[in-house]
Amino acid sequence: MLMKKIYYLLASLLLVPFIDAFGSFGSENGHDYIDLELPSGTLWATANVGANMPEAYGDYFAWGEIEPKKSYSWSNYKYGTNESSITKYCCDSVVGKDGFVDGKTMLEAADDVAHVKWGGRWTMPTEDQWKELSTQCYWVWTENYGGTGSNGYIVYKAKRRDDKGARAYKGTKPVELYSMSDVHIFLPATGCRFEETLSYSGSYGYYWASVLDTNEDTQYGALYVGFRAASVYHNYYYRYYGHAVRPVINK
Prior knowledge:
Elements: H1 2-21, E1 25-28, E2 31-35, E3 43-45, H2 113-118, E4 122-123, H3 127-136, E5 137-142, E6 152-157, E7 167-168, E8 184-188, E9 192-194, E10 197-199, E11 205-212, E12 221-228, E13 231-238, E14 248-249
Parallel strand pairs: 5-7
Antiparallel strand pairs: 1-2, 2-3, 3-14, 4-14, 5-6, 6-8, 9-10, 11-12, 12-13
């Protein structure tokens, strides 16, 4: 009886850091989220699609596709075979197949892998949601998240106004106010997939947004958020590349 009491006491003590870190924790359709108290109310998933832990990379998807593949190239992309043969999500006849245009710039639910795989209210983040995460949170680069050895960014709920949008890059001392017990998500440096090769894993992170590149003559690309130890940025690139997906809930 005494041993059982000791066991439960130890278990409760071990849970304290977890409860502190995820005080704004919840679940939707069996997948966990964190409330970073962002102005929009967006809730961010704790893991990537295809992953069961925050530090895991998960699966890689071409933009608008809902299944991972062995190889990622124009030759097997669902909505086009080159930069001028796009068959869906096209606003310029220059890149559309035979002049095709549909005017769609946002992924439909059937092409949103976060929604298809996780259901419920889960979706792929929009450009605005990624920008909000970038400007409203405090980002800290780590090369050993939670002792797992995983590289990437810890994205904390900002405690002070000056911390919003601030970064602690590699070699920069983080603000002492923050620790693993504070509300955060972790974005591992997943790298990306091109053809059959996984490149830059552990050094760069590449995450899709749900929006098309609407710049003239470059709509063969889509928005992604990228980062490395020294920077965080938004850019557009070829849709057929395999990038990670971190789902959100529009609160």
